[in-house]
Design a protein that fits this description.
Elements lengths: L2 H12 L2 H20 L4 E3 L3 E8 L2 E4 L6 E4 L2 E8 L1 H8 L24 H88 L1
Antiparallel strand pairs: 1-2, 2-5, 3-4
Length: about 200
């Protein structure tokens, strides 16, 4: 039986082929993710899936007989449950009418386990992504606000400098006019002095 045949076998019980395919995919994905993470997935009456570490060792090439070094690795392992073993060995008979051959899980045992672990991990990743997105947005907003404030301050200082320069120029201009007025006054004084000297001589 392959995956497509498994989906067909449970389609009537689940409510359709699409629902059956989604259920099979979800179960297999949860098992694989949990085993890869190092957790043990145990199904009562069916068996357990777990990750096993194999140390480095020497093996022989079956074709050449040469001794080969095998690196350390991890492999998945499935151990059949006692109920499964009894059904395969024939000590117990399969129930008729398509009933469940594997024992149902006891009440309260479905609150945790592999699927719950996978869901918790996914929730943590989603929360971490949201937090990172919020902090990035906050940083961008702060940087934009700082740039805007700096631009405004620069514009204000430039305007203040222009205003100060205009005022200083305006003050200097009347002073020049006053100087121009004082020059003719000096000339008039010089003429009067010359006239007095001429009168004295006469």
């Amino acid at each position: 039986m392959n995956k497509a045949q498994l989906v067909e076998a449970i389609a009537d019980k689940v409510g359709g082929r699409q629902q059956a395919a989604e259920a099979v995919d979800a179960v297999l994905d949860a098992i694989v993710r949990s085993v890869v993470a190092g957790d043990r997935v145990s199904v009562t009456g069916f068996g357990s899936f777990e990750k096993v570490d194999r140390p480095a060792r020497y093996a022989r090439n079956p074709q050449t007989g040469e001794r080969v070094r095998v690196k350390k690795t991890s492999v998945p392992r499935f151990r059949a449950g006692q109920g499964f073993k009894d059904l395969v060995s024939g000590t117990k008979k399969l129930p008729r009418g398509g009933e469940v051959a594997v024992k149902k899980a006891p009440k309260g045992s479905l609150t945790g386990g592999a699927s719950a672990t996978v869901k918790k991990a996914a929730a943590k990743k989603t929360t971490a992504k949201k937090t990172a997105a919020k902090s990035t947005a906050a940083k961008k907003t702060t940087a934009a606000a700082k740039k805007t404030t700096a631009k405004k301050a620069t514009a204000k200082s430039a305007a203040a400098k222009k205003t100060t320069a205009k005022k200083a120029t305006a003050k200097k201009a009347p002073a020049k006019k006053a100087t121009a007025k004082s020059a003719p006054a000096k000339k008039t004084t010089a003429r009067k002095t010359a006239a007095k000297k001429a009168t004295a001589r006469a």
